[in-house]
Write a structure and sequence with these properties.
The protein has 16 helices and three strands. The protein is mainly alpha-helical and 487 residues long. It has one domain: Amino acid/polyamine transporter I.
Length: 487
């Protein structure tokens, strides 16, 4: 049977067998979610963020980090309220669907797909750069970047496919190890006397610049996308709603703990890493923490060994972001926005393995073919992919904040077990900052081309929904809730 919904869509009524083949298993509590959230993000403290110093100097990156940290804190508080009220795996798509109809749900969910699939590729590139440097130091072994990235995709497909208990346990302990590595680097850098405030301001100012802002005030805008790398992924926790015990309570607690952890870690790394190496050097480094360990332990065999632990941060994020990509594709597929076979889960582990593999194929294809198409490789490839991931992220962020405002206005009576302390004004501030980043992205001269290509792909994705899947939706839990409360 089929029925029409708002926005010119048509729904198919699925039977119980359809959902039996797409079942999930509950496992996590608030600390498991904290581990998943921190693990998903922590690679951004090991690599990627430092490219913002190359765009704006240390002072510009510091200001950009404060702005983006504020955006994320307010956004997470707003998302926590929506996640407690709508505890479905759909997450961002679910919020937007209930607030803005099928088109709003699809655009938001599709933007989030881009964010997580491309972010996994970015983490893969940085992991490959780290691994190649480490194995070259230890064993004299060097592999092409595409080979390293392929190895990591296979490893983490196996981990994510082993079951939700393995995924959450791995993420939790990798988060602990990663934070421990960062703490060790910070302590040894301070005790060893390697840190100097002067190193923060060693970039020669251009005309009109200063030691604090060597490229001028406007350069702060160019650093905003890279500051996002300190936090991108913490918003994924609502995607685990149907795999969490008591998600209405656990998600807000786990997400807030994770956000505070990441803010503290980001500010420490932002200060200590360039304070050891110098901002000019760090702004183009592909493995800043590894370079920092080399500086702290010069000509010492312990540095490459410790760097193996530094790789832990990247491995943690590979697993955490792959988890998010799989659940995002799963939820949109279960509702018919993507081909429904993508949402079938493993009969034994209840993991959406088909969705995980689909996301991995697309991500790995970007790593293999983007260098061929653009000539970008190494750090420049990572920066290009990072900008593409941020493009999808900020669209999703802005639309989620729009959804928050609309839900407060149009559905004031739905049960909200958690209320954001910053309310509408906090969501509005987050939305404005996300829109500013979206506007800035195409104007970064170093990364303009891949962002423009992705904008074209985004249009193709919209046509796919408008011309095809709009007539083939399924009444999943997210759609049932939205139809009941909004239409």
């Amino acid at each position: 049977m089929s029925q029409k919904g708002s926005g010119g869509v048509v729904y198919q009524q699925a039977n119980s067998e359809y959902f039996d083949k797409r079942g999930l298993q509950r496992h996590a509590g608030s600390w498991g979610l904290w581990g998943l959230g921190v693990a998903a993000v922590i690679s951004g403290h090991f690599s990627g963020w430092n490219l913002g110093i190359g765009q704006a100097g240390w002072g510009g990156m510091f200001i950009a980090t404060l702005i983006i940290g504020t955006m994320y804190l307010f956004m997470i508080l707003s998302i926590n309220e929506m996640a407690a009220a709508l505890p479905h795996t759909g997450g961002a798509y679910s919020f937007a669907r209930s607030a803005m109809g099928p088109w709003g749900g699809y655009v938001t969910g599709f933007a989030e797909t881009i964010e997580y699939v491309v972010t996994t590729a970015v983490v893969g590139v940085f992991s490959g750069l780290y691994a190649d440097a480490i194995f070259n130091d230890l064993f004299g072994i060097s592999l092409p970047l595409w080979a390293w990235v392929g190895i990591f995709y296979v490893i983490f497909l196996a981990i994510n496919g082993s079951g939700v208990n393995v995924s959450f346990t791995f993420a939790f302990w990798m988060a602990i190890i990663s934070l421990g590595v960062l703490a060790f680097f910070v302590i040894t850098a301070i005790i060893g006397g390697n840190f100097s405030v002067d190193n923060l301001f060693d970039i020669a100012p251009e005309a009109g610049g200063s030691s604090f802002l060597p490229y001028g005030v406007a350069s702060i805008l160019l650093a905003l996308p890279f500051a996002i790398w300190f936090f991108l992924g913490i918003e994924e926790l609502p995607l685990a709603a149907e795999e969490t015990h008591a998600p209405q309570e656990a998600i807000p607690v786990g997400a807030f703990r994770g956000m505070i952890t990441l803010i503290a870690s980001a500010l420490i790394v932002l200060t200590l890493n360039p304070g050891v190496l110098g901002s000019e050097f760090l702004g183009a480094s592909g493995e800043p923490i590894l370079d920092g360990l080399r500086a702290v332990f010069p000509n010492d065999a312990i540095a490459p060994l410790l760097s193996l632990f530094a790789l832990a941060g990247l491995m943690a994020s590979f697993q955490g972001i792959m988890f998010a990509a799989g659940r995002n594709v799963y939820s949109l597929s279960r509702a018919g926005y993507y081909p429904t076979f993508l949402s079938v889960t493993n009969a034994k582990t209840k993991v959406p393995f088909v969705a995980l593999v689909a996301g991995a194929i697309v991500g790995y294809a970007l790593v293999v073919f983007l260098p061929i198409l653009t000539g970008r490789d190494g750090v420049l490839l990572a920066g290009s992919l990072l900008s593409m991931a941020v493009f999808g992220a900020v669209i999703s962020y802005a639309l989620q904040m729009v959804a928050y405002l609309l839900l407060k206005k149009n559905l004031p009576n739905i049960n909200r077990p958690y209320l954001s302390p910053v309310g509408n004004w906090g969501a509005t501030v987050s939305m404005i900052i996300a829109i500013v980043v979206l506007i800035v992205l195409p104007f970064s001269p170093d990364y303009q081309e891949p962002v423009l290509w992705l904008m074209g792909a985004f249009v193709v994705g919209l046509l796919y929904f408008g011309l095809y899947t709009r007539k083939r939706l399924v009444l999943s839990p997210e759609e049932e809730f939205a139809m009941k409360n909004r239409g």
